[in-house]
Amino acid sequence: MSHHLIFPSILTADFLHLEQEIKMVNGSDADLLHLDIMDGVFVPNLTFGFPVIRQIKTVSEKPLDVHLMIVDPDRYLEAYRDAGADWLTVHYETCPHLHRTIQQIAELGMKPAVSINPHTEVSLLEPILKDLNMVLVMTVNPGFGGQSFIEGSWEKIRKLREMITQTGSDAMIQVDGGVTEENIDALKEAGVDVFVVGNTVFSAKDPVQMISKLKNRN
Ligand code: DX5
Ligand code: ZN
User: Fold this and answer.
1) What is the pLDDT of residues 164-194, one digit of tens each?
2) Whose CA is nearest to atom 6 of ligand 1?
3) Is the whole model's pTM more than 0.70, yes or no?
4) Is the pLDDT of residue 5 over 70?
5) φ, ψ for residue 125 (rounded to 5)?
6) Calpha distance 183→159 (Å, rounded)
7) What pLDDT is stored for residue 50 in this prediction?
8) pLDDT of residue 59
9) The pLDDT of residue 218
């Protein structure tokens, strides 16, 4: 019996056949579909915008978890909701009024999450932990798929798990970057609830089977 969640990230999917890739995820044990939005400013890469999200929404049977790696996300919260986001993650490093941003995401009917870069200390999130559906601990520097897991993340995950217990928050812990068949069990043990998985799924010979393997441990 497994309680953790698997969110495939389409960053390394085949964009010429995106509909097939999403239908593959529909037919898998995945829980949500993770979409990486990059602006070429906050991170050194660009991905896709609202028209693509809207089209993905028409095909995806899984709710959409939208990870914003963009500066000044406040300008677009409603537009992401309208495009189809069910869960919305903003980066701590991009929000000077984070508490307000989180309230607005929730008021728009989405589940709010906050992400921290590898250099950002988890204790900074303590004042808002109770308002969050999820905390995303970046386990690579955001911007690209297929990077290696940063080892310093273990300590952050354990600290965050303690903070969540102490504050009585319901926030889930999500990790994103470098998740593999080799490290998923130990990450779960350390307290992770939600796994974003890009390369491990989309470069697998049988992605549906890989999602099932990652979901159904033991
Ligand atoms: C990186 C993205 C990730 C990425 C993870 O900036 O946020 O969602 O797709 O990819 P893998 O699993 O390949 O490290
Ligand atoms: Zn992501």
Assistant:
1) 999 999 999 999 999 999 999 999 999 999 9
2) 142
3) yes
4) yes
5) -90, -10
6) 18
7) 98
8) 98
9) 76
Q: What is the mean pLDDT of the chain?
A: 97
Query: Which are the catalytic amino acids?
Result: 36, 176
CB atoms within 10 A of CB 126: 14
Residue 149 Cα: closest atom of ligand 1: 14
Which ligand has an atom closest to residue 42 CA? 1
Q: Taking ligand 2, which is a single-atom ion, which protein residues have CB atoms under 5 Å away?
A: 36, 67, 176
Angle of CA points 148, 149, 155, to nearest 5°: 155
Long-range contacts of 128-131, Cβ-Cβ distance < 8 Å, separation of 24 or more: 128/98, 128/99, 128/102, 129/163, 129/164, 129/167, 129/169, 129/171, 130/167, 130/168, 130/169, 130/171, 131/99, 131/102, 131/103, 131/106
Task: Report whether pLDDT(2) > 60.
Answer: no
The predicted pLDDT at position 190 comes to 97
The whole-angstrom separation of Cα 149 and Cα 171 is: 22
Whether residue 9 contacts residue 36, with contact meaning beta carbons closer than 8 Å, is answered with yes
**Substitution candidate for ligand 1 out of 7, 10, 11, 117 with most atoms within 8 A of CB:** 11
Mean pLDDT of 112-141: 98
Distance CA 10, CA 202 (A): 8
For the chain, how far is it from start to end, CA to CA, in angstroms?
8
Provide CB contacts within 8 A for 147, sequence distance 6+. 140, 141, 177, 178
